[in-house]
């Protein structure tokens, strides 16, 4: 997995880069210290994942995330100092696939990069609850909320579970199907709804009232 990092604190950037580059399955292909340099780096190297600090000069992490996810397949994992930093929610809406605290352990950082790079989302429970509160949703009937999207009944089931933050393994257990079958359903749901990733699927469900706060 090819990774780039962006942080305006060189010591933090270098430390994270050294840690990730030491993993056999990860390769750090570049670092940047501001958002504009990060966008240029992504355009040049087309990495699988970008680890991005929220607060950076020239172009902040949110604006950089929005540009990266709009123009590239690169997934974005946001770094933040506080787990309820208001910028985090803007970053998720801009297309980030998750967030991570800067004081994370080395093991957790590596695990998070792998998870997000492979297509999972990484949202803490407090952030998930806050997203639900922000949208202020009420429960809707899936058939009405999904009219025109042509999802099959099974794909609708998968979407609702995605909206609750379930992993592929959890969905497979619940629906009593294989992991590859779930992966195929998830890909088809995202394609039909024109969603980039699982985080967008969660937001899609919140916006249309398909998920109650207590279910997230």
Automatic annotation (TrEMBL):
<dbReference type="Pfam" id="PF00196">
    <property type="entry name" value="GerE"/>
</dbReference>
<dbReference type="GO" id="GO:0000160">
    <property type="term" value="P:phosphorelay signal transduction system"/>
</dbReference>
<dbReference type="InterPro" id="IPR016032">
    <property type="entry name" value="Sig_transdc_resp-reg_C-effctor"/>
</dbReference>
<keyword id="KW-0804">Transcription</keyword>
<feature type="domain" description="Response regulatory">
    <location>
        <begin position="2"/>
        <end position="117"/>
    </location>
</feature>
<dbReference type="InterPro" id="IPR039420">
    <property type="entry name" value="WalR-like"/>
</dbReference>
<dbReference type="InterPro" id="IPR058245">
    <property type="entry name" value="NreC/VraR/RcsB-like_REC"/>
</dbReference>
<protein>
    <submittedName>
        <fullName>DNA-binding response regulator</fullName>
    </submittedName>
</protein>
<dbReference type="GO" id="GO:0006355">
    <property type="term" value="P:regulation of DNA-templated transcription"/>
</dbReference>
<dbReference type="InterPro" id="IPR011006">
    <property type="entry name" value="CheY-like_superfamily"/>
</dbReference>
<feature type="modified residue" description="4-aspartylphosphate">
    <location>
        <position position="53"/>
    </location>
</feature>
<keyword id="KW-0805">Transcription regulation</keyword>
<keyword id="KW-0238">DNA-binding</keyword>
<dbReference type="GO" id="GO:0003677">
    <property type="term" value="F:DNA binding"/>
</dbReference>
<dbReference type="InterPro" id="IPR001789">
    <property type="entry name" value="Sig_transdc_resp-reg_receiver"/>
</dbReference>
<dbReference type="InterPro" id="IPR000792">
    <property type="entry name" value="Tscrpt_reg_LuxR_C"/>
</dbReference>
<feature type="domain" description="HTH luxR-type">
    <location>
        <begin position="144"/>
        <end position="209"/>
    </location>
</feature>
<keyword id="KW-0597">Phosphoprotein</keyword>
<dbReference type="Pfam" id="PF00072">
    <property type="entry name" value="Response_reg"/>
</dbReference>
């Amino acid at each position: 997995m090819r990774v780039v990092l962006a942080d305006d604190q060189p010591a933090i950037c270098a430390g994270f880069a050294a840690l990730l580059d030491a993993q056999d399955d990860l390769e750090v292909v570049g670092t940047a210290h501001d958002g504009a340099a990060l966008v240029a780096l992504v355009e040049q190297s087309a990495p699988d994942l970008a680890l991005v600090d929220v607060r950076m000069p020239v172009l902040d992490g949110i604006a950089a995330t929005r540009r990266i996810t709009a123009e590239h397949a690169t997934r974005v994992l946001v770094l933040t100092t506080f787990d309820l930093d208001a910028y985090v929610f803007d970053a998720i809406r801009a297309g980030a696939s998750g967030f991570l605290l800067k004081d994370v352990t080395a093991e957790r950082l590596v695990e998070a990069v792998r998870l997000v790079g492979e297509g999972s989302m990484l949202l803490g429970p407090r952030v998930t609850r806050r997203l639900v509160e922000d949208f202020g949703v009420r429960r809707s009937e899936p058939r009405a909320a999904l009219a025109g999207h042509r999802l099959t009944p099974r794909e609708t089931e998968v979407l609702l579970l995605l909206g609750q933050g379930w992993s592929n393994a959890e969905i497979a257990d619940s629906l009593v199907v294989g992991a590859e079958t779930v992966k195929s359903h998830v890909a088809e749901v995202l394609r039909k709804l024109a969603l980039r990733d699982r985080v967008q699927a969660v937001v899609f469900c919140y916006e249309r009232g398909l998920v109650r706060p207590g279910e997230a």
